[in-house]
Design goal:
The protein has eight helices and 20 strands. With 384 residues, it is α+β, with helices and mostly antiparallel strands. It folds into three domains: 83 residues, Elongation Factor Tu (Ef-tu), domain 3 (Beta Barrel), CATH 2.40.30.130; 144 residues, Threonyl-tRNA Synthetase, Chain A, domain 2 (2-Layer Sandwich), CATH 3.30.980.10; 112 residues, Diaminopimelate Epimerase, Chain A, domain 1. The longest helix is centred in the C-terminal third of the chain and has 33 residues. The relative contact order is 0.08.
Protein backbone atom coordinates (compact mmCIF):
# COMPACT_ATOMS: atom_id res chain seq x y z
CA UNK A 1 0.00 0.00 0.00
CA UNK A 2 1.54 3.31 -1.07
CA UNK A 3 1.79 6.01 1.58
CA UNK A 4 -0.54 8.97 1.05
CA UNK A 5 1.62 12.07 0.61
CA UNK A 6 -0.06 14.71 2.72
CA UNK A 7 2.79 17.16 2.06
CA UNK A 8 1.72 17.27 -1.58
CA UNK A 9 -1.84 18.18 -0.60
CA UNK A 10 -1.03 20.85 2.00
CA UNK A 11 2.52 22.10 2.59
CA UNK A 12 1.33 23.97 5.71
CA UNK A 13 0.05 20.85 7.46
CA UNK A 14 2.12 20.50 10.63
CA UNK A 15 0.17 17.81 12.53
CA UNK A 16 -1.61 14.68 11.35
CA UNK A 17 -2.68 11.19 12.39
CA UNK A 18 -1.70 7.99 10.62
CA UNK A 19 -1.67 4.23 11.04
CA UNK A 20 1.61 2.33 11.38
CA UNK A 21 1.91 -0.15 8.51
CA UNK A 22 5.35 -1.60 9.27
CA UNK A 23 8.11 -1.16 11.84
CA UNK A 24 11.38 -2.99 11.35
CA UNK A 25 14.81 -2.74 12.96
CA UNK A 26 17.43 -1.49 10.51
CA UNK A 27 20.76 0.24 10.22
CA UNK A 28 19.09 3.59 11.02
CA UNK A 29 17.28 2.42 14.16
CA UNK A 30 13.66 1.54 13.48
CA UNK A 31 12.29 1.96 9.96
CA UNK A 32 8.60 2.94 10.09
CA UNK A 33 6.11 3.13 7.22
CA UNK A 34 2.73 4.86 7.63
CA UNK A 35 -0.47 4.81 5.61
CA UNK A 36 -0.20 8.62 5.30
CA UNK A 37 2.45 11.18 6.17
CA UNK A 38 3.17 14.89 6.13
CA UNK A 39 6.92 14.24 6.41
CA UNK A 40 8.72 15.13 3.19
CA UNK A 41 11.41 12.52 2.39
CA UNK A 42 14.86 13.66 1.30
CA UNK A 43 15.06 14.09 -2.46
CA UNK A 44 15.64 16.51 -5.30
CA UNK A 45 18.32 18.36 -3.34
CA UNK A 46 15.94 19.08 -0.44
CA UNK A 47 16.56 17.57 3.02
CA UNK A 48 13.86 15.59 4.76
CA UNK A 49 11.52 17.04 7.36
CA UNK A 50 12.11 16.53 11.06
CA UNK A 51 9.58 16.17 13.86
CA UNK A 52 7.99 13.47 16.01
CA UNK A 53 5.66 10.47 15.84
CA UNK A 54 3.85 10.09 19.18
CA UNK A 55 6.67 12.08 20.77
CA UNK A 56 9.47 9.94 19.30
CA UNK A 57 11.92 11.97 17.23
CA UNK A 58 11.89 11.36 13.49
CA UNK A 59 15.57 11.64 12.66
CA UNK A 60 15.35 11.27 8.88
CA UNK A 61 12.91 10.30 6.13
CA UNK A 62 13.78 8.56 2.86
CA UNK A 63 12.04 6.86 -0.02
CA UNK A 64 13.06 3.21 -0.24
CA UNK A 65 11.66 0.94 -2.98
CA UNK A 66 8.84 3.38 -3.55
CA UNK A 67 7.88 3.56 0.13
CA UNK A 68 8.38 6.53 2.48
CA UNK A 69 10.40 5.32 5.46
CA UNK A 70 10.71 7.24 8.74
CA UNK A 71 13.84 6.59 10.84
CA UNK A 72 13.20 6.48 14.59
CA UNK A 73 15.30 5.42 17.58
CA UNK A 74 12.33 3.66 19.22
CA UNK A 75 9.80 1.22 17.72
CA UNK A 76 6.12 1.84 17.08
CA UNK A 77 3.45 -0.87 17.28
CA UNK A 78 2.15 -2.00 13.88
CA UNK A 79 -1.52 -1.09 13.45
CA UNK A 80 -1.33 1.69 16.01
CA UNK A 81 -2.67 5.15 15.18
CA UNK A 82 -0.02 7.76 15.85
CA UNK A 83 0.13 11.55 15.84
CA UNK A 84 2.81 13.11 13.72
CA UNK A 85 4.13 16.62 14.25
CA UNK A 86 6.36 18.45 11.79
CA UNK A 87 9.10 20.87 12.85
CA UNK A 88 7.35 23.57 10.87
CA UNK A 89 9.96 26.31 11.44
CA UNK A 90 12.43 24.03 9.68
CA UNK A 91 9.87 23.12 6.98
CA UNK A 92 9.18 26.81 6.34
CA UNK A 93 12.89 27.57 6.00
CA UNK A 94 13.32 24.71 3.53
CA UNK A 95 10.31 25.90 1.55
CA UNK A 96 11.77 29.41 1.41
CA UNK A 97 15.18 28.12 0.34
CA UNK A 98 13.75 25.80 -2.30
CA UNK A 99 11.40 28.46 -3.65
CA UNK A 100 14.25 30.97 -3.74
CA UNK A 101 16.27 28.50 -5.80
CA UNK A 102 13.41 28.23 -8.30
CA UNK A 103 13.23 32.00 -8.69
CA UNK A 104 16.99 32.39 -9.23
CA UNK A 105 17.21 29.39 -11.57
CA UNK A 106 14.23 30.58 -13.58
CA UNK A 107 15.68 34.07 -14.01
CA UNK A 108 19.09 32.75 -15.08
CA UNK A 109 17.51 30.30 -17.50
CA UNK A 110 15.39 33.10 -19.03
CA UNK A 111 18.34 35.50 -19.34
CA UNK A 112 21.17 33.18 -20.33
CA UNK A 113 19.61 29.85 -21.26
CA UNK A 114 21.71 28.05 -18.65
CA UNK A 115 20.31 25.00 -16.89
CA UNK A 116 20.41 24.23 -13.20
CA UNK A 117 22.46 21.00 -13.28
CA UNK A 118 23.03 20.64 -9.53
CA UNK A 119 21.18 21.77 -6.42
CA UNK A 120 21.96 21.11 -2.77
CA UNK A 121 20.67 22.57 0.48
CA UNK A 122 23.66 22.47 2.81
CA UNK A 123 23.99 23.44 6.46
CA UNK A 124 25.34 26.90 5.67
CA UNK A 125 23.91 27.75 2.26
CA UNK A 126 22.16 26.51 -0.86
CA UNK A 127 24.41 25.75 -3.83
CA UNK A 128 23.18 25.84 -7.42
CA UNK A 129 25.33 24.70 -10.35
CA UNK A 130 24.74 26.16 -13.80
CA UNK A 131 26.16 24.88 -17.08
CA UNK A 132 27.46 28.22 -18.35
CA UNK A 133 29.45 31.27 -17.20
CA UNK A 134 27.72 34.22 -15.56
CA UNK A 135 29.50 37.61 -15.36
CA UNK A 136 30.00 38.63 -11.70
CA UNK A 137 28.44 42.04 -12.37
CA UNK A 138 25.27 40.32 -13.59
CA UNK A 139 24.65 38.63 -10.23
CA UNK A 140 23.56 41.87 -8.61
CA UNK A 141 20.99 42.34 -11.37
CA UNK A 142 19.74 38.77 -10.90
CA UNK A 143 19.52 39.29 -7.14
CA UNK A 144 17.50 42.49 -7.54
CA UNK A 145 15.20 40.82 -10.07
CA UNK A 146 14.69 37.85 -7.72
CA UNK A 147 13.73 40.10 -4.83
CA UNK A 148 11.37 42.10 -7.04
CA UNK A 149 9.57 38.81 -7.73
CA UNK A 150 9.23 38.40 -3.96
CA UNK A 151 7.89 41.93 -3.46
CA UNK A 152 5.30 41.36 -6.19
CA UNK A 153 4.01 38.35 -4.21
CA UNK A 154 3.32 36.28 -7.30
CA UNK A 155 1.31 33.05 -6.97
CA UNK A 156 2.97 29.63 -7.04
CA UNK A 157 1.02 26.77 -8.62
CA UNK A 158 1.63 23.04 -8.33
CA UNK A 159 -0.13 20.83 -10.87
CA UNK A 160 0.00 17.54 -12.76
CA UNK A 161 -0.49 18.15 -16.50
CA UNK A 162 -2.09 15.50 -18.66
CA UNK A 163 -0.04 13.47 -21.10
CA UNK A 164 -1.47 15.62 -23.88
CA UNK A 165 -0.66 18.92 -22.15
CA UNK A 166 2.87 18.06 -21.05
CA UNK A 167 4.65 18.18 -24.46
CA UNK A 168 3.37 21.71 -25.02
CA UNK A 169 4.71 23.08 -21.72
CA UNK A 170 8.25 24.62 -21.67
CA UNK A 171 9.23 23.25 -18.28
CA UNK A 172 12.75 22.86 -16.90
CA UNK A 173 13.99 19.40 -15.91
CA UNK A 174 17.46 18.01 -15.12
CA UNK A 175 16.67 14.70 -16.79
CA UNK A 176 13.96 13.02 -18.88
CA UNK A 177 10.94 11.97 -16.81
CA UNK A 178 8.71 9.01 -17.50
CA UNK A 179 5.10 8.83 -16.39
CA UNK A 180 3.20 11.56 -14.53
CA UNK A 181 5.13 14.81 -14.03
CA UNK A 182 4.59 17.21 -11.13
CA UNK A 183 5.18 20.79 -12.24
CA UNK A 184 5.74 23.85 -10.07
CA UNK A 185 5.03 27.25 -11.64
CA UNK A 186 6.28 30.55 -10.25
CA UNK A 187 4.16 32.99 -12.23
CA UNK A 188 6.18 34.61 -15.01
CA UNK A 189 9.48 33.30 -13.63
CA UNK A 190 9.82 29.53 -13.64
CA UNK A 191 8.11 26.33 -14.67
CA UNK A 192 9.96 23.30 -13.41
CA UNK A 193 9.44 19.61 -12.77
CA UNK A 194 9.93 19.25 -9.01
CA UNK A 195 8.83 17.00 -6.14
CA UNK A 196 9.75 19.34 -3.26
CA UNK A 197 7.78 21.63 -0.98
CA UNK A 198 7.32 25.31 -1.88
CA UNK A 199 5.56 28.43 -0.69
CA UNK A 200 2.23 29.32 -2.31
CA UNK A 201 3.13 32.99 -2.92
CA UNK A 202 6.58 34.40 -3.59
CA UNK A 203 6.20 37.01 -0.82
CA UNK A 204 6.61 34.20 1.72
CA UNK A 205 10.25 33.77 0.63
CA UNK A 206 10.99 37.09 2.34
CA UNK A 207 14.41 37.83 0.90
CA UNK A 208 17.01 36.27 -1.41
CA UNK A 209 20.72 36.89 -0.99
CA UNK A 210 23.37 35.61 -3.39
CA UNK A 211 26.57 34.99 -1.43
CA UNK A 212 29.24 33.75 -3.86
CA UNK A 213 29.74 32.77 -7.48
CA UNK A 214 32.69 30.57 -8.44
CA UNK A 215 33.76 28.81 -11.60
CA UNK A 216 32.62 25.18 -11.51
CA UNK A 217 33.41 22.79 -14.37
CA UNK A 218 32.19 24.54 -17.53
CA UNK A 219 29.85 26.85 -15.65
CA UNK A 220 29.47 28.38 -12.20
CA UNK A 221 28.37 27.43 -8.69
CA UNK A 222 26.28 30.01 -6.87
CA UNK A 223 25.81 30.02 -3.10
CA UNK A 224 22.59 31.65 -1.92
CA UNK A 225 20.27 31.98 1.03
CA UNK A 226 16.58 32.85 1.26
CA UNK A 227 13.95 33.42 3.90
CA UNK A 228 14.70 32.85 7.57
CA UNK A 229 18.23 31.47 6.92
CA UNK A 230 19.04 34.59 4.87
CA UNK A 231 17.67 36.87 7.59
CA UNK A 232 19.72 35.04 10.27
CA UNK A 233 22.87 35.29 8.13
CA UNK A 234 22.39 39.00 7.40
CA UNK A 235 21.71 39.65 11.10
CA UNK A 236 25.01 37.98 12.01
CA UNK A 237 26.85 40.00 9.37
CA UNK A 238 25.27 43.20 10.70
CA UNK A 239 26.24 42.28 14.24
CA UNK A 240 29.85 41.73 13.23
CA UNK A 241 29.88 44.97 11.26
CA UNK A 242 28.53 46.88 14.27
CA UNK A 243 31.37 45.47 16.38
CA UNK A 244 33.95 46.45 13.74
CA UNK A 245 32.31 49.87 13.42
CA UNK A 246 32.61 50.47 17.16
CA UNK A 247 36.20 49.19 17.33
CA UNK A 248 37.32 51.44 14.47
CA UNK A 249 35.12 54.43 15.37
CA UNK A 250 33.74 54.31 11.84
CA UNK A 251 30.19 54.57 10.54
CA UNK A 252 28.64 51.19 9.64
CA UNK A 253 28.85 51.91 5.91
CA UNK A 254 32.46 53.11 6.18
CA UNK A 255 34.05 50.12 7.90
CA UNK A 256 35.66 48.84 4.69
CA UNK A 257 37.48 52.13 4.16
CA UNK A 258 38.52 52.18 7.82
CA UNK A 259 39.91 48.64 7.57
CA UNK A 260 41.79 49.58 4.38
CA UNK A 261 43.39 52.56 6.15
CA UNK A 262 44.28 50.41 9.16
CA UNK A 263 45.75 47.74 6.90
CA UNK A 264 47.93 50.32 5.15
CA UNK A 265 49.09 51.71 8.48
CA UNK A 266 50.00 48.19 9.60
CA UNK A 267 52.02 47.61 6.43
CA UNK A 268 53.87 50.87 6.99
CA UNK A 269 54.57 49.88 10.60
CA UNK A 270 55.87 46.48 9.47
CA UNK A 271 58.24 48.18 7.01
CA UNK A 272 59.59 50.50 9.70
CA UNK A 273 59.98 47.57 12.10
CA UNK A 274 61.81 45.56 9.43
CA UNK A 275 64.23 48.42 8.78
CA UNK A 276 64.86 48.82 12.51
CA UNK A 277 65.39 45.07 12.84
CA UNK A 278 67.92 45.12 10.00
CA UNK A 279 69.83 47.91 11.76
CA UNK A 280 69.85 45.92 15.00
CA UNK A 281 71.10 42.82 13.17
CA UNK A 282 73.86 44.83 11.55
CA UNK A 283 74.95 46.30 14.86
CA UNK A 284 74.88 42.88 16.51
CA UNK A 285 76.98 41.41 13.70
CA UNK A 286 79.51 44.24 13.96
CA UNK A 287 79.87 43.65 17.69
CA UNK A 288 80.65 39.97 17.05
CA UNK A 289 83.14 40.53 14.26
CA UNK A 290 85.98 37.98 14.53
CA UNK A 291 84.34 36.17 17.49
CA UNK A 292 84.55 32.76 15.81
CA UNK A 293 81.80 30.26 16.63
CA UNK A 294 78.76 32.06 18.08
CA UNK A 295 75.64 30.80 19.87
CA UNK A 296 72.87 33.42 20.25
CA UNK A 297 69.47 33.41 21.96
CA UNK A 298 67.11 36.14 20.81
CA UNK A 299 63.55 36.84 21.95
CA UNK A 300 60.62 37.56 19.66
CA UNK A 301 62.02 36.57 16.26
CA UNK A 302 60.02 34.85 13.59
CA UNK A 303 61.78 32.11 11.59
CA UNK A 304 62.66 34.64 8.87
CA UNK A 305 64.19 36.95 11.46
CA UNK A 306 66.19 34.06 12.91
CA UNK A 307 67.55 33.36 9.43
CA UNK A 308 68.45 36.97 8.69
CA UNK A 309 70.23 37.50 12.02
CA UNK A 310 72.15 34.26 11.50
CA UNK A 311 73.24 35.34 8.01
CA UNK A 312 74.33 38.78 9.25
CA UNK A 313 76.42 37.42 12.13
CA UNK A 314 77.90 34.58 10.08
CA UNK A 315 79.23 37.10 7.58
CA UNK A 316 81.24 38.86 10.34
CA UNK A 317 82.07 36.35 13.09
CA UNK A 318 84.53 34.23 11.08
CA UNK A 319 83.06 30.94 12.31
CA UNK A 320 79.80 29.12 12.76
CA UNK A 321 76.74 31.09 13.90
CA UNK A 322 73.75 29.44 15.59
CA UNK A 323 70.71 31.54 16.49
CA UNK A 324 67.79 30.29 18.62
CA UNK A 325 64.53 32.12 19.38
CA UNK A 326 61.66 30.90 21.62
CA UNK A 327 58.77 29.38 19.66
CA UNK A 328 55.41 27.87 20.62
CA UNK A 329 57.07 24.63 21.67
CA UNK A 330 60.79 25.00 22.28
CA UNK A 331 62.94 27.10 19.92
CA UNK A 332 63.24 27.84 16.23
CA UNK A 333 66.80 27.87 14.97
CA UNK A 334 69.12 28.78 12.11
CA UNK A 335 72.76 27.70 11.77
CA UNK A 336 75.20 28.96 9.15
CA UNK A 337 78.90 28.37 8.48
CA UNK A 338 80.92 29.58 5.52
CA UNK A 339 82.68 26.76 3.72
CA UNK A 340 81.46 24.17 6.23
CA UNK A 341 79.21 21.12 6.09
CA UNK A 342 76.48 21.19 8.72
CA UNK A 343 74.89 17.84 7.83
CA UNK A 344 76.37 15.85 10.74
CA UNK A 345 75.81 18.67 13.22
CA UNK A 346 72.18 19.06 12.20
CA UNK A 347 71.49 15.33 12.50
CA UNK A 348 73.05 15.27 15.97
CA UNK A 349 71.17 18.40 17.04
CA UNK A 350 67.78 17.12 15.90
CA UNK A 351 68.41 13.75 17.51
CA UNK A 352 69.55 15.14 20.84
CA UNK A 353 67.02 17.96 21.16
CA UNK A 354 63.90 16.43 19.59
CA UNK A 355 64.26 18.67 16.58
CA UNK A 356 63.45 18.77 12.91
CA UNK A 357 64.98 20.75 10.10
CA UNK A 358 67.65 20.84 7.44
CA UNK A 359 68.90 22.80 4.47
CA UNK A 360 72.10 23.34 2.52
CA UNK A 361 75.59 22.21 3.59
CA UNK A 362 76.37 25.78 4.76
CA UNK A 363 72.94 26.73 6.15
CA UNK A 364 70.18 24.86 8.03
CA UNK A 365 66.96 25.93 9.71
CA UNK A 366 64.38 24.20 11.88
CA UNK A 367 63.03 23.84 15.41
CA UNK A 368 63.73 21.90 18.60
CA UNK A 369 61.62 20.90 21.57
CA UNK A 370 64.15 21.60 24.30
CA UNK A 371 65.00 24.30 26.82
CA UNK A 372 67.89 26.75 26.69
CA UNK A 373 70.03 24.74 29.10
CA UNK A 374 69.82 21.64 26.91
CA UNK A 375 70.71 23.65 23.80
CA UNK A 376 73.73 25.25 25.52
CA UNK A 377 74.84 21.83 26.81
CA UNK A 378 74.63 20.38 23.30
CA UNK A 379 76.84 23.04 21.79
CA UNK A 380 79.22 22.84 24.72
CA UNK A 381 79.60 19.08 24.81
CA UNK A 382 78.48 17.64 21.46
CA UNK A 383 79.04 20.19 18.73
CA UNK A 384 82.47 19.97 17.15
Amino acid sequence: MATEKLFEQDVYLSAFTARVLTCEAGKHGYHVCLDRTAFYPEGGGQPADRGTLDGIAVEDVHTENGEIVHYLKEPLEVGRTVTGKIDFDRRRSLMQLHSGEHIVSGLIFARYGYHNVGFHMGRDAVTIDFDGPIPPQALEEVEWAANRVIWENRPVRVFWPTAEELPRLPYRSKKPIEGAVRLVEFEGVDLCACCGTHVTHTGEVGVIKLLTCQKFHEGVRIEMLAGAPAFAYLSQVMGQNRAVSAALSAKPLETAQAVARLSQELENTKLRAARAEEQCFSLRASALAGAGDVLLFEEGLRPDGVRRLCDAVKARCGGRCAVFSPAEEGYSYAIAQSGGNLKALTAALNGALNGRGGGRPDFVQGSVRADRAAIEAFFREVAP
